[in-house]
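Appendix B. Raw example, untouched.
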Amino acid sequence: MTHDKRMTALCFQISLGFLLVGTYSSVSAAQPATNSPVQANSPQAEMEAAIHQVEKIVNQPVGAYRRAPGMHVSEYSPGWFHEGATKPDFNNVDIRATRETPYEAHEYVTSDLNPNIVFIGRQLEFNSMTKYFYTNRSLPKKKLTQTEMEEINRLYRIIGRCEQQLVGKQNPHTAGGQSSSDPNESDIMPGKRPRLLSPYIGGGAILVLGLFLFVKYLLKAR
């Protein structure tokens, strides 16, 4: 192989290397992040934290006692609660207005699920607007204090606000009520907008062209 041919081949290999490196860098930079964790201050994380707090308050343990002869016990059947639950209107409901205390009329209560255990009736409640968060329906629910009910109302407002924010992110046109009249803004979805040539690919192509012209010039000059 002559000197000129070796030089041409070397320049071609160098140019090809730069081009491949530029292309790989461009593709790597364009790859979206996947499986990213939920940010601590995101609506999803805030909503999940509020739900966890509601469940913690609603499902507090209740004092249970072994059933003994002579106790005046009222038994509920089948179980403590009916199937299903209504999802609360988180933005408006006041659970203080929906609490029921049917157990107060009885000193002790039990159910066919746990007939050998009794609970003090005045310590229990039922609330159709917290039933959605009952995690264990085989046991009755503790009668909440006014402070606890007010805290649940506050947490419900957080859940409702976060739900609206998440729906707005998923359906921005619907959440906003109107779509933008500028087709350059609203009609092109993110990720589908026209993109300029990557600087890596463009730079590599220019470098290849420059080296090619330089080699061509040297060959003519010899």
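End of appendix B.
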